[in-house]
Design a protein that fits this description.
Elements (H helix, E strand, L loop, with lengths): L6 E8 L9 E13 L9 E3 L11 E2 L8 E3 L2 E14 L2 E13 L10 E15 L2 E10 L6 E6 L4
Parallel strand pairs: 3-4
Antiparallel strand pairs: 1-2, 2-6, 3-5, 6-7, 7-8, 8-9, 9-10
């Protein structure tokens, strides 16, 4: 009987920089996860998709540009930068760029051991009494089409 070691290590970092004026904020973000397994169990896969980390499953890294989740390699990272503008009182516009980098643990599987995707988004949000109400128009080079994402309230 062969024993298999299964597990994952993940991290996320997010910062807020307001360099010039209170109406402009830079939000750099970094997400990563390493899975070591041969599992068919979905939480031990790396997936990317949606604006919110862990929205669809435990190991999901956020990726603006696709609304669904997509299975990716065992060593994956997402670099993201949001540029948020407070245009008037409770009205905000956010320009979003993110890049996915996936590293193939077995370079013999493909000609390119590093896979990369980019995604773009433009979000309008209003800071209402019940929390932010937002609409994001997004695109990525994974599926090469535009989509919309609507949200109400805070993310938990």
């Amino acid at each position: 009987k062969k024993e298999t070691l299964m597990g994952d290590i993940g991290f996320s970092c997010k910062g807020y920089l307001t360099p010039w004026h209170e109406s402009f904020t830079i939000i750099p973000q970094l997400y990563g996860r390493l899975c070591f397994n041969e599992s068919l169990y979905v939480p031990l896969w790396n997936t990317i998709g949606s604006e919110i980390e862990g929205r669809h499953c435990e190991g999901q890294l956020p990726f603006v540009g696709i609304k669904h989740i997509r299975k990716v390699g065992d060593l994956s990272t997402v670099l993201r930068c949001d540029l948020r503008f407070n245009v008037w009182r409770k009205h905000y516009f956010t320009a979003i760029y993110n890049m996915f980098l996936g590293f193939d643990d077995d370079a013999r599987k493909s000609d390119t051991p590093i896979t990369s995707y980019s995604g773009l988004g433009l979000k309008y949000s209003y800071d209402s009494y019940i929390g932010p109400i937002g609409l994001t128009a997004q695109w990525s080079d994974i599926n090469r089409r535009f989509s919309l994402y609507f949200s109400i309230g805070y993310d938990f």
